[in-house]
Amino acid sequence: MQKRFLPAVLLLSVLLAMFVACGLQLERTRAFSFAAEASARRVYLTFDDGPSTVVTGRVLDILKEENIKATFFIVSDMAKTRQETLLRIAEEGHSLGVHSASHDYQRIYSSDEALLADIDECAAYIFQVTGIKPRLYRFPGGGHERQRELIRERGYEIVGWNAVCGDEEIPHASAQRLVREAVRTSKGKDPVILLLHDSARHKETAEALPSIIARFREEGCVFCAF
To answer: Which of 1, 6, 34, 51 is the one with CA 20 to 30 A from 72?
Structure first.
């Protein structure tokens, strides 16, 4: 009886050894992958001035296809007629930040109280539609250090940018030009916080987005959201 079972025992021993060896190799591969990702250059795609129906919708389609999360800084006056798009941004796992209620510089910067009221109005609308209380803020057009302190005291993280695609800076830029500008302005930066826009007039930005993503991926970058 013992001799009959001996081949089966040996086979089980060999299979167990192979299983353990494969497990160790998998762990080494995972560790290498995690280490490589941790050291990779990070890219934050950030979108201002939306949502819009067509452009933001196309941007979201691309991000979903590419399995990338981004950060959207919302203008609530724009979102009031585009609730479904705002909700989609949240439901698909992207980060939401306050940009402005009106994007009217004269109104926003007329006083500190007006600035804070603008932020509160936008944040309240984002929460009303999505149930998310935003903690990110991006100034429309700038802001003074004293104002930054006021906003930080409200618990917001202020997010700037260090690279642009040029969709505001370069009049009538083609998608190809936007790709080149994104690559040029992000050179040597880590992390890259790339400013893009998703309002209705920025169709070329959506057109450029797949190529922008491809160029960063060619460089081994990883994409992040705030």
So the answer is: 34
